[in-house]
Amino acid sequence: MKFEIDLNKLNDDELELIVQLKKRGMLNIGELAICPKCSSYQVIRNGKRKSRYKTKQRYKCKSCNYKFTLNPSKNRYPSDIRNFVIKSKLSLRKTRDEVNKRFNINMSHVTVLSIKKLG
User: How far apart are CA 34 and CA 23, in angstroms?
Assistant: First the structure.
């Protein structure tokens, strides 16, 4: 079921309930951004952060001026590249050569080692 809520028409208690439900993952609201620093719902879009593989929406809190990204990625390389490196039975340098050729990127053998260690 989909419905729209105008956040400007809610009182403070209702907003706090929505914020708490969103933080606990009990409320699935795609674009409801909540400031991770001050827990304010008064955020605006503030550009995009581009990486080699994807683009993420940036936000700015109107209350504390904190700039943030929702669900920041902890891995530089996408899961298909990481899975290939982890499953590879080749040496580090041969794995590096295969990754660089297959995915058209420039990865070092040290990066291959750290991906294998961390999983």
Answer: 8
Instruction: Report which residue type is found at 107.
Output: M
Q: How far is CA 36 from the centre of its chain?
A: 13
Residues across the chain: 119
Residues of the chain with pLDDT under 50: 1
Nearest Cα to 33, choosing from 11, 7, 52? 7
Q: Residue 58 in contact with residue 69, Cβ under 8 Å?
A: yes
Closest CA to 111 of 74, 52, 95, 87: 95
* DSSP structure class, residue 110: H
Report pLDDT for 24: 66
